[in-house]
Amino acid sequence: MKQVFFKFKIKSFFSWLKEWKVAVILILNSLVFFLILYNDIHKSTEFGNREIIGDINFKYNNVKRKFEHNVVWSEMDLNSIISFRDSVLTENNSNAIIKLKDGTEIHLEPESMIILDISDNNKKIGFNNGSINVIKKPTSEGGNDSITVETESGNIQFDNADVVISKVGDQNLNVGVARGDAKASVGGKKFNLKENESLEFKGEFSTKTNKKITIINPVQLARQQEEAIQKKFFNKMDAIAQKELELESSNQTQDAQSTSSSNSSSPNKITSNNNNQNGQLKPKKKVDLKTGRYDALDGF
User: Fewest CB atoms within 10 Å of the CB: 92, 123, 150, 218?
Assistant: First the structure.
């Protein structure tokens, strides 16, 4: 009896599982995804044995970071610590300055992303998109102190220079040197760039120009953006105030015209019996009872 009941239970369970298998699969998938996401977020709050390579020296608006092997981007605060193989990105209208332990500064302009493959013996910056400025000065330790910026098109290497690198969307890669010297290796070709020289790549072709290159500090850029936002706001407020003044002036004009029209439709009444054709008052007469004469009266 027990065996029959047990077989019936198993058969019922499999029948139920067959009927609800899609829902069960979805629930299991959701549970696994939740556990992965929870673990990823939990790991993002702990550095563990990660090698610290620098910090966020300045930030404006939204700057995010993703640890290696993680899928979640987390918001970064000022002075946030940066570790080996971290990815950092800036969103629209956002800027950041990353300062490495050796004093190198990396300026990120809006909508830029980099991967910091930085260690004591190997300094590489993976550049994906946007625009960055790398301010690199030699250290007192000597040895191989160069830093390499790796892009999809090629690499740029330098050890004592200020370099501007940009690639926005589908645009071409641009490299410029504001100070010092840099070496670029793109498409199997090597280029030596000196101060105020820039290189623009168009497929297999490249164009080298010589013009003044100025690096704008993100702090100054953020200040300019704030000033532009404030100017736009005040211009909008001025336009609203001007419209209100025009509306008030228009209302006052309409009120004055209405009053004038009301007055013209109700003129001062003058008794026609007391006016002559020339509009002058007609004198009244009275009878002197003694003499029987009529004497004119002044006025009414």
Answer: 92
For 89-143, write each residue's pLDDT tens digit. 999 999 999 999 989 999 999 999 999 999 888 899 999 899 999 999 887 665 5
CA 166, 169, 170, 171 torsion-angle sign:
negative
Q: How long is the chain?
A: 300
Do 181 and 229 fall within a single domain?
no
Number of domains in the chain: 3
The answer to whether position 256 is within a domain reads: no
Task: Kindly report the number of other CB atoms within 10 A of residue 132's CB atom.
Answer: 23
Give whole-number Cα distances, 287 to 71, 280, 296, 299, in Å: 120, 23, 9, 16
- Are 203 and 230 in the same domain? no
Nearest by Cα to 97 from 76, 118, 117: 76
Cα separation, 175 vs 155, whole angstroms: 10
CB 187 within 8 A of CB 201: yes
Q: What does the angle CA 268 – CA 269 – CA 271 come to, to the nearest 5 degrees? A: 150
For residues 134 and 107, membership in a common domain is answered with: yes
